[in-house]
Design goal:
The chain is of the alpha+beta class. Helix content is 42%, strand content 26%. It is rod-shaped.
């Protein structure tokens, strides 16, 4: 603070000088509340400190009920906000603003007055606005005199009128510039992509729009360097390329750039992908003073592309596995059938079994299939009343579903040709259970009863080889085939929670 005298209490000196000034002054907080008024301001507005201190400026002085009152208030408020936001003095060459005055009968009436106002921001040592000083001059009589002598060429018109004319022109230009600035600000804030403006070598946030606020979890970043505002970016390379843009003046573009951000307070880091460009901002001399950042959150696009690639890779893998399975079925079936007709029948039946399981998996988007559904698919054709299915609900992964579908098809086909289902009263009982819930293992028992007497085969056919190979190789399980005279029995167990790649 500047000294007014070398002795005495400085605060008293400043207060006395403020109050003794013949010019009206009011001191406002940044949110436009009245912090202090001098006597000249109280006299000009016919008000008291008791009724104004601490109040919102436009609650204390609202320009009355007239049609022009809202516009009068808007002009003054806009000027104050410009001074506060730009940290620069702002002028209103002429503004109409009515003042409430008490009448002799005790009523209150609003008197139209014309003012010239200057709004000056008062900054602290850190450069932040702590107060706004409004200095007003009542120019009502000058304006009335000029209007009463409109059209006459005299000293008033050539001097005072010219001054007022130039003042109005300056105010009109300021209003036009303010409107243009507001339009640009609105465009900035409403941009569909994220936008932010960084200034200085430490990249201080000056402005950012709603999309950027959403991206970073609506944190308070205004006026903060990026290293303080977004500390989680450390080690991710973003500080460094901003430093490079500021130092070299060369723009930087990122495509599907991976970044980890804390989207909500105290939450873990979340991975997002961004398309963006950082453009240097230069002053009149060409020196870089800041960086303009604009971009889009493309996380959904990147995730969708990765998912599509994964699905294509998975499809290719499944097609190859299916073709290999078909090739194996064809070769094994051909070895067991010399007659082309019987080969075609067996081969077609096995392909249909494979197709049925594919249908089940397709319905679940290849997330898996129920063991019961697979069994019913393969046994319903032989009569549901002849096959008893008993066990808990088990969801199988795609690879296990395909293998078990082929196994149950072979078991059902053999039962229909040679086993219990080939006799009128024969039946099949299928029981399954799961043991060790921490490392689940599925046990399945296929038991045929009341069929013809069973004799062990003289040689291992395709069906038994497929069952044993699928259980032991594809499913990493154990299998036992028992050709007891009273009825064929197949027992096998497989792990349900092992990692599968097919």
């Amino acid at each position: 603070m500047k000294e007014l005298s070398k002795s005495g209490d400085l605060r008293v000196d400043l207060a006395d000088a403020f109050d003794a000034s013949p010019n009206p002054y009011v001191l406002l907080t940044p949110d436009l509340r009245i912090a202090g008024l001098n006597q000249a301001y109280l006299d000009a507005t016919a008000s008291t400190r008791e009724t104004t201190i601490g109040r919102d400026l436009f609650a204390a002085f609202n320009s009355g009920p007239g049609e022009d009152a809202p516009e009068n208030v808007r002009q003054v408020k806009a000027s104050l906000e410009r001074a506060r936001d730009t940290r620069q003095r702002d002028h209103l060459a002429m503004v109409r603003f009515s003042i409430a005055r008490a009448q002799t009968d005790g009523a209150t009436a609003f008197e139209d007055r014309v003012w010239s106002a200057t709004h000056t921001p008062i900054l602290d040592d850190a450069g932040e606005v702590v107060f706004l000083l409004q200095h007003t001059v009542d120019i009502t009589e000058l304006q009335q005199l000029r209007e009463s002598r409109r059209g006459e060429t005299d000293e008033l018109d050539s001097m005072g009128g010219a001054v007022l004319g130039r003042a109005r022109a300056v105010q009109a230009d300021n209003q036009r510039l303010s409107d243009e600035r507001n339009q640009l600000t609105d465009m900035f804030m409403q941009a569909p992509g994220f936008v932010t403006l960084l200034t200085g070598p430490t990249h201080i946030f000056q402005m950012h729009n709603a999309a950027y606020a959403q991206l970073i979890g609506h944190r308070d970043i205004a006026g903060k360097p990026i290293r303080d505002a977004l500390p989680e970016l450390a080690g991710q390379g973003y500080y460094e390329f901003l430093d490079n843009v500021y130092t070299t003046g060369e723009p930087y573009e990122g495509r599907a750039s991976r970044v980890q951000l804390q989207r909500t307070p105290d939450a873990p880091l979340e991975t997002v992908y961004l398309d963006f460009i950082c453009q240097p901002i230069r002053d009149a001399a060409g020196a870089v003073t800041g960086i303009f950042v604009q971009g889009h959150d493309v996380t959904n696009n990147v995730v969708a592309a990765e998912r599509q690639k994964l699905m294509i890779d998975e499809l290719n893998h499944r097609v190859k596995n299916t073709l290999a399975t078909v090739q194996s079925i064809a070769m094994q079936t051909a070895r067991s059938h010399d007659d082309p007709r019987t080969f075609a029948e067996s081969f077609q039946a096995r392909l249909l079994a494979l197709s049925h399981t594919h249908d089940l998996l397709t319905r679940s988007h290849w997330e898996g299939a129920l063991l019961l559904d697979i069994l019913q698919h393969e046994t319903d054709a032989h009569g549901a009343h002849r096959v008893t299915l008993n066990g808990p609900r088990i969801e199988l992964e795609p690879a296990a579903a395909l293998s078990l579908g082929m196994i149950f098809h072979e078991l059902a086909t053999n039962a229909a040709k040679y086993g219990a289902l080939s006799a009128p009263d024969g039946r099949v009982m299928v029981d399954w259970s799961v043991a060790d819930l921490t490392d689940r293992r599925l046990t399945v028992s296929w038991h045929e009863i009341d069929g013809p007497v069973v004799t062990p085969p003289e040689r291992r056919g395709f069906g038994s080889r497929l069952i044993e190979r699928n259980v032991r190789h594809d499913l990493a399980g154990d299998v036992e085939l028992d050709y007891a005279p009273q009825g064929f029995r197949a027992e096998f167990s497989i792990p349900l929670d092992r990692d599968r790649t097919s």
